[in-house]
């Protein structure tokens, strides 16, 4: 990432840089106390320190706003809760992958909920974010989850090839809207390669959306464009998919929760 891009992003996202940690981070605070063993009165200082280190790597809005600690989307998403039950089911050996996982807070939540770390994977473009995740949760020595840095836009990125055919459930929260349509198709095709070909119940799910600023349609997948993309990806990969979408649409913002399943 060039210095010019980092500087431009810092200016664009300056308004997202909060001086106080929002209440939405409270569940993550509890994880830092109960899982990471950080003293309650030391948690906030620890969070500020990690946030500022991450902001220096790349000033994403989700970093400045502490959204990397917000577990509200998972708590309110019935599909996510169903996935947790599925992963915890007796005899389950299914593998879960969080793409664009940043610090891996969702992975740590699943570990706290009793999912074996050996079945949990996270990827991110920024290897430094993965390192900061270990620093944030202080679990480098004890975590058995696997975190891999790699570029989802590059089909030949060897760092991610070890996941091919191994994953049953892919979580893509606040991920697809990082790309324009061509990039969305490319990352979706890469996800298909990750999925277990022997499991008819594989799925990709998550949420994408954003404010309706000029050009938002190029980034946010709505009901129609989800279906179009899945058809295009299916034709390119020789697979067949069905989609589910739940849309919250106002004059100012659109949020789309989605799930993609292998068609029977």
Automatic annotation (TrEMBL):
<dbReference type="InterPro" id="IPR051654">
    <property type="entry name" value="Meroterpenoid_MTases"/>
</dbReference>
<feature type="domain" description="Methyltransferase">
    <location>
        <begin position="97"/>
        <end position="198"/>
    </location>
</feature>
<dbReference type="InterPro" id="IPR029063">
    <property type="entry name" value="SAM-dependent_MTases_sf"/>
</dbReference>
<protein>
    <recommendedName>
        <fullName>Methyltransferase domain-containing protein</fullName>
    </recommendedName>
</protein>
<keyword id="KW-0949">S-adenosyl-L-methionine</keyword>
<dbReference type="InterPro" id="IPR041698">
    <property type="entry name" value="Methyltransf_25"/>
</dbReference>
<comment type="pathway">
    <text>Secondary metabolite biosynthesis.</text>
</comment>
<dbReference type="Pfam" id="PF13649">
    <property type="entry name" value="Methyltransf_25"/>
</dbReference>
<dbReference type="GO" id="GO:0016740">
    <property type="term" value="F:transferase activity"/>
</dbReference>
<comment type="similarity">
    <text>Belongs to the class I-like SAM-binding methyltransferase superfamily.</text>
</comment>
<keyword id="KW-0808">Transferase</keyword>
